[in-house]
Amino acid sequence: MGKLSTHVLDTVHGVPAQGVALELYRLDGDSRTLLAQTATNQDGRCDAPLLSGPALTRGVYELVFHAGDYFARKGVPLPEPRFVDQVVLRFGVANPDENYHVPLVVTPWTWSTYRGS
């Protein structure tokens, strides 16, 4: 049985990003269903998988990370409107028996992701 997990790395400060609020949605056509709402811990990870076992199904998902709020709390000077504010990662799960680790590497000016395990 597979699982979905994430973590956030703050490359401005070179640390795991603690306290980043995030939501997980499942997309089905025009429908968007909230599945989880949490925040990252001191290691920049969530305390538990976002989905695991039978809750992880084949389909399209979105992770929404509130990166702009995180950097504002850290005292980083940000323009208004923020260049990077909410980072929305849309990804597909083709095989729910596999592990899907979807990390975010972020600054106020750029972000990237990859599929980890």
Automatic annotation (TrEMBL):
* Keyword Lyase in annotation: no
| Gene3D superfamilies in UniProt | Transthyretin/hydroxyisourate hydrolase domain
Q: Which GO terms describe its molecular function?
A: hydroxyisourate hydrolase activity
Record EC number: 3.5.2.17
Q: Name one Pfam family in it.
A: Transthyretin
Q: Which family does it belong to?
A: Belongs to the transthyretin family. 5-hydroxyisourate hydrolase subfamily.
The job of this chain, per UniProt, is described as: Catalyzes the hydrolysis of 5-hydroxyisourate (HIU) to 2-oxo-4-hydroxy-4-carboxy-5-ureidoimidazoline (OHCU).
Question: What is the name of the protein in this document?
Answer: 5-hydroxyisourate hydrolase
Species name? Castellaniella denitrificans
